[in-house]
Amino acid sequence: MTGSVGLSVLTAAGGLTLADGPSELPSIDDFLPPEILFQGTPFAMNRIILIRAIMTVVLLLVFGITAKRAKLIPGRWQGFVEWMIEFVEYNVVYSTMGELRGKRYVPMCCTIFFTALCFNLCGVIPGFNIAATATIAMPLMFALWTLVQYWRSGIRSNGGLGKYLKKELFPAGVPWPVYILLSPIKFLEIAVIQPGALTLRLFANMVSGHLTLATALVMTDWYIIQVHNAAMMPVGILWFLFGFLMTAFEIFIAALQAFIFSVLTAVYINSSYPEDE
Amino acid sequence: MDLTTLAEVAGNLSVIGYGLAAIGPGIGLGIMFGKAMESTARQPELSNKLNTIMYIGLAIIEVLALLGFVAFIMKS
Amino acid sequence: MTTLADGNGIDLFIPKTYDIFWSFIILVILAVFFYKFFLPRFQKIFDERAEKIQGGMDKAAAAEKEAEEAKKKYEDQLTQARVQASKIRDDARAEASHIIADARSRAESEAAQISANAQRSIESEQQQALVSLKGQVGTISVALAGKILGKELKSDAVQSDMIDSVLGDLEDESKED
């Protein structure tokens, strides 16, 4: 077995016939590509970062031109963009924290939503074939931004760091011995777990999505083209259908993860405000 | 591969570990979304609040599955 | 197995310096883009559109109000005209009846005057006739009586006494008639 061991479960369907299976099975090394530009410097670029940079330029161009040409009576594309903005504004921000409080966080959630969506979609764009959010740094940056924002809003709205920590770590209505257990957990939650979970959710979804999709496509290629055996064609076709399905699923996941990320950002910021209800 | 081996179980234990780790959060997510739907159906006017609480729950539950995934990738 | 050394997977979760660097740069660029250009621009468009729609609705409402006012004004004028017309009619009718009454009273008074005049003239004529008749009757009867009595009635005093008594008798007779 020369294939990726960790992924053999994904190839189990063809496992028995693979004397020496496809050699191009995706592995986690796809997410650690070699540096191709500025090697060895802190500005080195690998494949994923290059994709990210290209996607950034595309995003800036497309949305920049859309915004530049935005008219009072929207065309079809502008209508779609406006629909997305309003979706983020109302369904993500305002529905979680209300209009008054959420107004200043709309641009942030919009940035995160649009960026995450476009970067996630790179995973199904031919030629890129890997999500631009598929290295840990990008989701981590989003999550750190969220972290900074909700600490800031918490400190600002509660009137000082001490009061914010008191509200978060020592919630009212709990007998004091529980604090010994509760407070460290709460601190861990607001400092590490929340941003960590945000990062990992996005990253892990992109990694697993890429692994599944790439496996399906590699296996299709293997059964239909590499193995010269007509009997194996149906298996290849099944793999192809699976790959097709997974592509659709990946598009869905890309949107869903962008949505979840921005919603959770809004939720975390909202929960840092003092409870005034 | 050794020819004398008739049946080989190839793979990594971490895969099974991840499979096991996904069970709990799977059940948890199912219960959570089901309950959220139920309560939204009962009191649609509270859906915004319920959604918010649901997302917080989702975040907490999903961390478990994600930790499983991390362990799976790390050991592979 | 060669591609995946044991524990290699942990590398996935340790961000590389250059990765952080580029992610940060890209995020900053995108954030600036969204904060400073993209969203304000669309917000402006949204506001403008809302204003326009609001303005259109306001204009429509104003036009409707204006139409309503015009209608009300027209109706007011119509009722006013109607009232005026009926008033004029009433006035005319009142005046007409007034005129008629006036005319009638004038005619009546005139008639009364005429009849009174006639009465008076008749009375005066009668008086005149009576006076002249009295005179004539006196002379005639004196003459007559003279002729009848002859020379008996020589003194004037006896004459007039007798005439008066005769006329008084005559008058009494005529009164009794």
Automatic annotation (TrEMBL), chain B:
Keywords: ATP synthesis, Cell membrane, CF(0), Hydrogen ion transport, Ion transport, Lipid-binding, Membrane, Transmembrane, Transmembrane helix, Transport. Residues 16-74 form the V-ATPase proteolipid subunit C-like domain. GO terms for cellular component: plasma membrane; proton-transporting ATP synthase complex; proton-transporting two-sector ATPase complex, proton-transporting domain. The record marks E62 as: Reversibly protonated during proton transport. Gene3D superfamilies: F1F0 ATP synthase subunit C (1.20.20.10). It is a multi-pass membrane protein. It holds the Pfam family ATP-synt_C. This is ATP synthase subunit c. It comes from Pseudoscardovia radai.
